[in-house]
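Inverse folding, one chain.
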């Protein structure tokens, strides 16, 4: 009888361990940084994707002057980010994610700036107030809390590798930019042969970082803060854009009708859908913008950071 009890207890203990295994596996999975980012940024994602500016951009409602200024804001953003990445290339909380040859965008953005503004482009450009605050935040993190730098690198580069390709096509069609890539070098990753595989590698290395759960939670908070910076840019943009008359699109039709793949959530990184492949005088509108420098930079930063946000959730 005692043997039967012992056997019964043995079975019960075994069943108990087996029942706990899926729970442990699920807990481990949810502790992965990529999973925490997925769950922890949903609310910010929903708010960002429903801004009017984001919706208009997906429809190709963008002017060349704004796209030029967007490139300006991207240049300043990536200059700050890559400066801090270089500074922390040997930091254990970031070094596994340091891919300068594959990811860095400053050189490509320099080519785009020269294409749009000419050789003296540095004398013509600056960031908006809200964009400058984001740049300052990146510098602060890189110099004081480098363990959080992954939040900014992940949200920018992973999005550029996937959803950013949609934006490239929209811009080329709407603005009649050369198909050979002039003006859109930012979106060309010459040293990444397979974007999908590279993103998988990046997430795997990110999940393998030796971080405490508390630090991972702080990274999620920092990613949400990045969303807030972006939405502050959108607020500036909405206020500034309301003062500008809109030009009709080419032939009166939008570049994209909002159907098909472009309607997929452009923010939700965790879904990993893979890389996706008039009568008014435009000169008059452009001159109206150029007469208001502060308005220029507000709109520039809005378009630029929208690109990052639009791309975020395609990965």
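Residues assigned per position:
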């Amino acid at each position: 009888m005692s043997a039967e009890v012992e056997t019964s207890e043995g079975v019960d203990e075994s069943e108990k361990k087996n029942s706990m295994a899926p729970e442990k596996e699920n807990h481990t999975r949810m502790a992965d940084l990529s999973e925490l980012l997925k769950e922890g940024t949903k609310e910010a994602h929903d708010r960002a994707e429903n801004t009017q500016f984001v919706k208009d951009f997906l429809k190709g409602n963008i002017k060349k002057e704004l796209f030029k200024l967007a490139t300006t804001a991207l240049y300043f953003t990536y200059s700050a980010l890559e400066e801090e990445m270089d500074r922390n290339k040997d930091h254990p909380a970031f070094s596994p994610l340091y891919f300068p040859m594959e990811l860095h965008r400053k050189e490509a953005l320099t080519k785009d700036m020269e294409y749009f503004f000419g050789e003296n482009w540095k004398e013509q450009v600056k960031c908006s107030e809200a964009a400058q605050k984001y740049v300052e935040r990146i510098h602060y993190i890189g110099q004081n809390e480098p363990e959080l730098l992954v939040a900014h690198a992940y949200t920018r580069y992973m999005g550029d590798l996937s959803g950013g390709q949609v934006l490239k096509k929209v811009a080329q069609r709407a603005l009649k930019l050369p198909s050979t890539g002039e003006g859109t070098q930012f979106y060309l990753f010459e040293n990444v042969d397979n974007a999908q595989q590279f993103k998988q590698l990046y997430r795997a290395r990110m999940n393998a970082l030796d971080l405490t759960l508390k630090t991972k939670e702080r990274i999620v908070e920092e990613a949400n803060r990045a969303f807030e910076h972006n939405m502050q840019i959108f607020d500036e943009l909405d206020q500034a854009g309301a003062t500008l008359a809109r030009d009709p699109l080419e032939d009166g039709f939008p570049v994209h009708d909002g159907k098909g793949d472009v309607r997929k959530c452009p923010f939700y990184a965790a879904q990993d859908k893979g890389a996706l492949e008039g009568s008014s005088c435009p000169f008059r509108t452009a001159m109206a913008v150029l007469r208001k420098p502060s308005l220029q930079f507000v709109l520039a930063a809005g378009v630029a950071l929208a690109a990052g946000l639009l791309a975020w959730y395609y990965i």
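The chain is about 65% helix and 0% strand. The first helix runs from residue 2 to 31.
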